[in-house]
Amino acid sequence: MTTAHQVVFVAPGRMEVQEHPVPSIGPDDLTMRVRRVGICATDVHLLDGHLGDPFPVVPGHEFVGEVDRIGADAALARGLRPGDRIAVEMLVPCGRCDRCRQGRYNVCEDDDRAAGGRGRQYGVNMGGDRAPGFWGGYAETLFVPGEAIVHRIPSHVDWDAAALVEPLAVASRCVRRGRVGPGDRVAIIGPGPIGLLAAAAARAAGADEVVLLGTRASRLELGLSFGADDTIDTSAETDVVAALRSTLGGRTADVVIETAGSAEAQVQAVRLTRRGGRTVLAGALGSGRPVTFRQDEDILVREVEIVASFLSAGGYEPALALLARGDFPFARLVSHRFPLERAAEALELVRHKRDGVIKALLVPQRAG
Ligand SMILES: [Zn+2]
Ligand SMILES: [Zn+2]
To answer: Could you tell me which residue ranges the Alcohol dehydrogenase-like C-terminal domain spans (predicted)?
Structure first.
């Protein structure tokens, strides 16, 4: 019997590398050999127990790899065979609820109790004890049932760049939710991986001017390679609205995308939006924290449209197209690579933002 290794978060603050038999597959299923998996701040929150109680859970939702074994019906339906390079979406839609039927499978209404009302997400809320296991990317193998959404990775996109497909899909959804189009002036708050990728996605969507706002000079600098025309170091400005106005020739932004995940950034996002413009709130604050807006001055009389953008639904197609075009130096975002058994060290690096980390990856399979 073949076995595979995976990292299991067994309880808050406790993780182990475990070896389990690779599950057998039915006609609709496949298994994927994981080539790269991105480490996300979400994984740190998951380990700390801030995302409910999914334990035991195999983390990792930013994975790419190649088809290992595939059932006959899956091979036919998906047009895939062993060895094909694929990206599997982290959201597993039920395909039956009203939201899934609308294509909004990021807010799938199935599985409410088991998953805390968030639908099924690989590496986040699909418990490690749910049969047949292998529901997370920190592993040599991933189990992929018939309802999972699978995309082919173009052959010229290398694994490091391909590993950015999930955060780029999240960024692409933000841009789509903000209806960014030709001529738009776009401000993006937060120069983390999602913010940098949102700059690239906004540029690709035709934005006229893209301004990246944040506090880390090296990150802001990097933004200039990812579609940003200008940057604003918000820690150096007493009036950020005035700073954006002066950058944009007296105007504020048609669309503001907030990816920083702080209450302050969300309030700022609304104020940086022009009258009648659109604010996209995409950052997670951590559970239960309220945000206070000046409803009349900042929202009502300026009729600012505020939308949320959650996860990656509909984002993989534009993300893969963008990766395939290669207009941006995506692989530069990959700052670190670790083998599976050093996952704990990698998570601490991400937690403390040490060593200039941008995106750290695990490389579970040695070859390739
Ligand atoms: Zn993530
Ligand atoms: Zn659903």
So the answer is: 193-324
Q: How many A from CA of 311 to the centre of ligand 2?
A: 15
Token pair listed for 126? 């699909």
Domain-located, residue 313: no
Give residue 120's domain range: 3-152+329-362
Alpha carbons 316 and 313: distance in angstroms, whole number? 7
Sign of the alpha-carbon dihedral angle for 91, 93, 94, 99: positive
- Between these two residues, 316 and 50, which has the higher pLDDT value? 316
Q: Give DSSP secondary structure letters for 228-271.
A: -SEEEEGGG-S-HHHHHHHHTTT--EEEEEE-S--HHHHHHHHH
Distances (CA, A) of 322 to 64, 153, 176, 216, 327: 16, 12, 14, 26, 7
Its sign, for the CA torsion 92, 96, 98, 103, is positive
Per-residue model confidence (pLDDT) at position 223: 98
Inside any domain, residue 19: yes
Tens of pLDDT, residues 58-68: 999 999 999 99
DSSP helix/strand/coil, 191:
coil
Same domain (yes/no): 139, 191: no
Ligand 2 centroid from CA 125, angstroms? 15
Question: What percent of the chain stands above pLDDT 90?
Answer: 89
Q: Would 133 be classed as within a structural domain?
A: yes
Rounded CA Rg of the chain = 20
Confidence at residue 207, expressed as pLDDT on a 0 to 100 scale: 98
pLDDT digits (tens, 9 = 90+) for 137-166: 999 999 999 999 999 999 999 999 999 999
Residue 93 Cα to ligand 2 midpoint, Å, equals: 5
Ligand 2 mean position, distance from CA 108 (Å):
4
Task: State the CATH number of the domain containing residue 17.
Answer: 3.90.180.10
From the CA of 42, how far away is ligand 1's center (Å)?
6
Domain of 295, CATH number, reads: 3.40.50.720
- Across the chain, mean pLDDT equals 94
Q: Would 113 be classed as within a structural domain?
A: yes
Closest ligand to Cα 105: 2
Q: Which residues contact 265 (CB under 8 A, 6 or more apart)?
A: 189, 190, 258, 283
Residue 276: is its pLDDT beyond 70? yes
